[in-house]
Amino acid sequence: MRMSTPLLAITMGDPSGVGPETIVKAWQSPQVHSACRPIVIGSTEILRRAVELLGAEITVVRAEAATEISGDPTTLPCLEIDSEAAVEALPARCDPKGGQAAYEAVVLAAHLAQTQQVDGIVTAPLNKAALQAAGHMYPGHTELLAACCGVENTAMMLYLEKENLNTAGTGWGVVHTTLHMAMRDIFKHLSTRRILHCVLLADAAIRNLKAIPAQGSPKIGVCALNPHAGEDGIFGNEEREIISPAVKEAIRKGLNVSGPYAADSLVASAERGAFDVLVAMYHDQGHIPLKLLGMHRAVNITLGLPIVRTSASHGTAFDQAWQGTADADGMIAAIRLAARLTCKPSMPTVSAREDG
Fold first, then answer.
1. Taking the chain, what is the end-to-end CA distance rounded to the nearest angstrom?
2. Which residues contact 316 (CB under 8 A, 6 or more apart)?
């Protein structure tokens, strides 16, 4: 399929949020068009509204197939979703119609990627409450895409280059063992096997992102769950009973992994270059520090899928939507990173070192 640059499908996300604005702003970036041949999946009408809002010199056209790429940054081709939900969704608020439109775009994009009609997908943000109000009971993009691709053991990685994507391979990432769930549910989903699987995914993913040769050993740090890594059992036994056995098994498989370390000090070590990738135990343990370091540069990558998928690390931001002020740096970073990943070996559904 690939010609000079990869073909990427960009989903519009929830039309009530900042997704349409960030796409239109990103479309005007020369960095995007030098990296890939993009096409948007969503609503031509919503995209035209975003173009008008921003005063952009872009013509939105309806495409009939993913191959209808203009190559002209002033022309934005859009593959239309089936329903009228996007056009009817209320702007800047949580609306089930917005959730339905976002769902349809993701399902179509996943199909195009799985049937190799596109090389990868980049998703604008959806709203989880709107998605579920539309009847699609997924906690987020990661779980929805896993269902679309028929896989179970996915994981989210946030990846941040040290400065920007012009210094490709200088960043570090965080893979999350548990993700979209209540804090009280983390203990039910945390297991030695799950942590080991995430370590394996982290090793394979960071090799692609940092171009580490097959004989190389990316440095992986594993976060503790409890404060002070449990303080020898005073604050909990999860480090001894669940996390440490996973680290030992990963070492036995030949990975350069260590831990569990107290998360507060481990993140600082990774930022200084001591680790290539961390494995966090829960959502905010990984998200908060990376977003503090680069809210609009961090990119979300779904590991464990048979397709390439990235997204910006921010949400629908209804409080900022449809004001013309949305920041597109995250979308640009996500598009450029997806283009890089399509030129690498596949992001693995299972590591070369078998899990189990």
1. 35
2. 13, 14, 16, 17, 18, 19, 125, 126, 127, 130
Return the H-helix or E-strand segment holding 50.
helix 44-54
CATH topology of domain 1-154+304-356: Isopropylmalate Dehydrogenase (3.40.718)
| Whether the domain at 1-154+304-356 and the domain at 162-297 fall into the same CATH topology | yes
Amino acid identity, residue 152? E
Give CA–CA dist 153/174, Å, rounded: 16
137-154 pLDDT per residue, tens: 999 999 999 999 999 889
pLDDT in tens, 85-142: 999 999 999 999 999 999 999 999 999 999 999 999 999 999 999 999 999 999 999 9
Strand spans (E) along the chain: 7-11, 37-42, 59-63, 75-80, 120-123, 155-160, 172-176, 220-223, 257-261, 277-280, 299-303, 309-312
Beta strand spans in 12-82 (E): 37-42, 59-63, 75-80
Among 141, 100, 107, CA closest to 124? 141
Q: Note the pTM of the prediction, 2 decimals.
A: 0.92
Angle at 26 between CA 16 and CA 209, to 5 degrees: 110
**What is the C-alpha separation between 142 and 179, in angstroms, rounded?**
9
Task: Provide CATH code, domain 162-297.
Answer: 3.40.718.10
Count of beta carbons in the 10 Å neighbourhood of residue 301? 24
State how far Cα 167 lies from the chain centre: 20
Which H helix or E strand runs over 46? helix 44-54
Kindly list the domain boundaries of the chain, sorted by start residue: 1-154+304-356, 162-297
Residue 160 bridge partners (DSSP): 172
